[in-house]
Amino acid sequence: MIRVLIADDQALLRGSFRLLVDLAGDCTTVGEAGTGVEAVALTGQHRPDVVLMDVRMPEMDGIEATRRICADPATAGTRVIILTTFDLDEYVYGALRAGASGFLLKDTPPADLLAGIRVVAAGEGLLAPTVTRRLIDEFARRAEPTRPLPRHLDGVTEREREVLTLIARGLSNAELATRLNLSPATVKTHVGRLLTKLGARDRAQLVIVAYETGLVGPSGLR
């Protein structure tokens, strides 16, 4: 069973998400939090596999709660999905930097929400949807000009940089295999090596590395 914690300051939304999760068959809700402080505390208590995290909550926002959860060795194995709306787009990049494994819009269809929970619980990042590519493109537009690649990318091969660039565009492993004419197993190997070499938790963190090192910029994310 995938153990899920729901953090949102609206009780009605928490109840709706809980019902959806508990009826999925392979997921179960282990707790509900109405504030960021509660989210951090309950994550430490229950060690869920996935936290559905609202951004705007009292006492502590979802980004800071995510940062604390991901920075704590005791809860570092918990994956965080940020729940956002279009008027909160400016928070998405900060959430990914804080350690979130991806994000979903609050009006995401139920089946897609459950699919997202399963993907993140399996160690992947929610980076394929078009909305994700658009949002990260927007953050890149606001950033400082591309700078020389730092030394910590020196150990990354040209093929791996190519894979990293495509991951930053939101391509899935299957799409990478098609684009690069590689087998799925080979793509998985490249992604695994990138995670290890760059010390990244998942694909979401690889996008941040690709952006912050200057490997990709606004034009490279389209």
TrEMBL record:
UniProt keyword RNA-binding present: no
Residues of the Response regulatory domain: 3-121
GO molecular function annotation: DNA binding
Name of the molecule in the record: Two component transcriptional regulator, LuxR family
InterPro entries per the UniProt record, alphabetical: CheY-like_superfamily, NreC/VraR/RcsB-like_REC, Sig_transdc_resp-reg_C-effctor, Sig_transdc_resp-reg_receiver, Tscrpt_reg_LuxR_C, WalR-like
Modification 4-aspartylphosphate occurs at: 54
UniProt key word Cell membrane: no
Residue span(s) of domain HTH luxR-type: 149-214
SUPFAM superfamilies associated with the record: C-terminal effector domain of the bipartite response regulators, CheY-like
The entry's keywords: DNA-binding, Phosphoprotein, Transcription, Transcription regulation
BP-aspect Gene Ontology terms: phosphorelay signal transduction system; regulation of DNA-templated transcription
Organism whose genome encodes this protein: Micromonospora lupini str. Lupac 08
